[in-house]
């Protein structure tokens, strides 16, 4: 599992991180905004971007970023640039993106140490210190799934959707993707999906475990592999052969069907299950089973009719009949035929 996720995630990045947003990336970010936020922006700002359009400014600021920039500017809390002037929206968003994409878990500290030439003379040096506790070989699974694409809309290549454990935070997701796969993200949106449970007696049987869905914004586009239904027939056959060679899907389905058939037959036979052996050529499938049941019923009725005719003939001749009980271990009984 880890090998395949690493192979897929390794293709998510192909160039160094940049704070420059392509128009298609801004449109993808606008399309991924939650419905409640889109409704609030439409009501307050009158913004109704269509498919493929963006509500960002020419500098790449979303309406929320622009409102945050104006608020800091009114409060006088905006940092100043090198020339002493207040940062422009473009400089502010670049600084914000650079801070968000920094390597987490480290901090730069300044220390005073003596020089090698003269121990009495000191100098100030910068050192990188690890914050918190490093985690080696984390036992969490990031499952890459296909993005949700409404019908009639194009696939969003600037997003990647993961299924992660509920305890993983956005900071953990950003740090994990960068530290393990080298993937840098622009934004992360998460939502929690609770597992469904089906009542069964006095207890509940859980059908699906709870998981968290993380929608991650990407700097460079990534196209998820085509679905089997969307592939041409030649590529689809190659894909099926590759999957069968790697994972033996058909063989696993066959073994599962045999085990299910064996367990059903064993439970139906009861005490005779120890003497019963599974036949590889057994009939499977609803239609074939019904056809086999009808054939065996006809044979049974014919056998009963022949046996009754034989008994009647024996009774007419006044001979003694021996009646056997095949499913009983009782001794044979001799029944005198009544003329």
Automatic annotation (TrEMBL):
GO cellular component terms attached to this protein's record: mitochondrial large ribosomal subunit
Region of interest (Disordered), residue spans: 42-94
Keywords: Ribonucleoprotein, Ribosomal protein
Superkingdom to which the source organism belongs: Eukaryota
Gene3D superfamilies named among the record's database cross-references: 3.30.70.330
GO MF terms held by the record: structural constituent of ribosome
Matching InterPro entries: Nucleotide-bd_a/b_plait_sf (IPR012677), Ribosomal_uL23-like (IPR013025), Ribosomal_uL23/eL15/eS24_sf (IPR012678)
One GO-annotated biological process of the protein: mitochondrial translation
Keyword S-adenosyl-L-methionine tagged: no
Similarity comment text for this entry: Belongs to the universal ribosomal protein uL23 family.
This protein's name: Large ribosomal subunit protein uL23m
Species this chain originates from: Lentinula edodes (Shiitake mushroom)
